[in-house]
Specification:
7-stranded parallel β-sheet; 18 helices; binds zinc ion
Length: 396
């Protein structure tokens, strides 16, 4: 394959960013990932789930990796986003320094002169550079437990995730770091599905920015292969059921998740029409968090929107659109009664995390447990399918 000098340079830059984003050469540095990605690993058999493997991990001496691991461990247990962002921001600041600059700050004990570095982060940086596992990280690792007491057998069958966000919209980490984390979790693929233009509060992507992101994903795929980054969108379902992005761009995507984010309280009949129109759109693949409810969490609670669920799920079945099982603990969407109804009707499903940060990619465990409880067969969960079958379905 002949590539232009410009493309080659861009790819080199991406490769560097990927390396900066995630200590690519040391996949085991993030121990909790391996615990969850390999539920039958020997560590578990020996009694204390997760712990043994944590102990075997070699010390992390890279301050950037240490800060990112702390953020990751906090995200998977849903810590306050503000605190997590402080660690991610600190990691970015240190990543931008040369090794000489790092050494100089360490010698002078001058880390606090860098704006944006807090006391906890500075402690982590100093201890890492002094060649020891930072206390803060050690404490987080010691507390790390599997997210669910008993993993669903479905979890092992899941090959990827069709709904994630990055800093391009309202996520907390770069596309590069999100996808590296998905790869480390053992996924074969992961879709980047940032928001569409009308969702301004979430910095939805204009057509131009989405096109830019697609170019980045092409380059990222060269670097991460055979892992596959899927081009996607979480597109707003507008009031009349149309989708909030140009048909031309939607056609260029691998995966389209369509979700309602506005006027959640409209009357049942209008909402039913709206959702069915979106489902009937040939570009829609997944119906995101169908009721929009929030049952707990930082954003407060919100009741579920009203619609004729039989009509909506029947439409999803007819048009081969997967009903999302949204794994976020504050959503648990659809609620159990609707999930069982959709299963009875014979819908396809997609178990997604809707992750806004790397650590949240582990939420798949929650969705898998709920799918099991509802009796959903693995065969009807599109994210258990091999990638080629998934793409065939998505582009049919
Ligand atoms: Zn959403
Ligand atoms: Zn989302």
């Amino acid at each position: 394959m002949v590539i232009s000098a410009e493309a080659a340079a861009r790819r080199r830059e991406i490769a560097l960013r990927v390396r900066a984003a995630g200590h690519h050469d040391r996949p085991l540095a993030m121990a909790p990932l391996s615990v969850c990605a390999q539920p039958n690993a020997p560590a578990r058999v020996e009694g204390r789930p997760g712990r043994l493997r944590l102990l075997k991990v070699s010390p992390v001496l890279d301050p950037v990796a240490a800060l990112r691991e702390i953020a990751y461990l906090m995200e998977r247990t849903r810590s306050d986003t503000y605190r997590v962002r402080a660690f991610r921001h600190a990691a970015d600041l240190v990543a931008d320094l040369s090794s000489e600059e790092r050494a100089e700050h360490q010698r002078q004990r001058s880390w606090s002169t860098i704006p944006g570095l807090g006391a906890s982060s500075i402690g982590v940086i100093e201890q890492s550079l002094a060649g020891r596992v930072p206390d803060y990280l050690a404490a987080k690792r010691a507390k790390a437990e599997p997210l669910v007491a008993v993993e669903s057998p479905l979890r092992e069958l899941l090959r990827g995730d069709l709904h994630t966000h990055s800093t391009w919209s309202d996520g907390g980490a770069s596309v590069e770091e999100m996808m590296l984390s998905a790869q480390r979790l053992g996924h074969d693929y992961c879709a980047v599905t940032d928001h569409s233009p009308r969702l301004r509060v979430a910095r939805g992507l204009s057509a131009e920015r989405l096109a830019e992101q697609l170019a980045l994903i092409d380059d990222l795929n060269e670097v991460l292969a055979p892992f596959r980054v899927l081009k996607g969108i979480e597109v707003d379902i507008l009031d009349d059921g149309s989708l909030d992005q140009t048909p031309f761009l939607l056609k260029r995507l691998d995966i389209v998740v369509a979700s309602v984010h506005s006027k959640l309280a409209m009357d049942s009949e209008s909402m039913t029409h709206r959702m069915v129109a979106a489902i009937a759109n040939p570009r829609t693949n997944v119906l995101g968090h169908c009721t929009g409810r929030l049952i707990t969490g930082e954003r407060g609670t919100r009741g579920q929107s009203q619609f004729d669920a039989e009509v909506v799920f029947e439409a999803a079945r007819m048009f081969n659109v997967a009903v999302e099982i949204n794994s976020r603990p504050e959503r648990e969407d659809p609620p159990m009664d609707l999930l069982m109804l959709a299963n009875e009707i014979g819908c396809l499903f997609s178990i997604d995390t809707d992750a806004h940060a790397p650590g949240q990619l582990e939420f798949l465990s929650y969705g898998a447990v709920r799918a099991s409880q509802a009796g959903v067969p693995a065969e009807r969960i599109v994210t258990t399918w091999p990638l080629h079958r998934l793409l065939e379905w998505a582009n049919a």
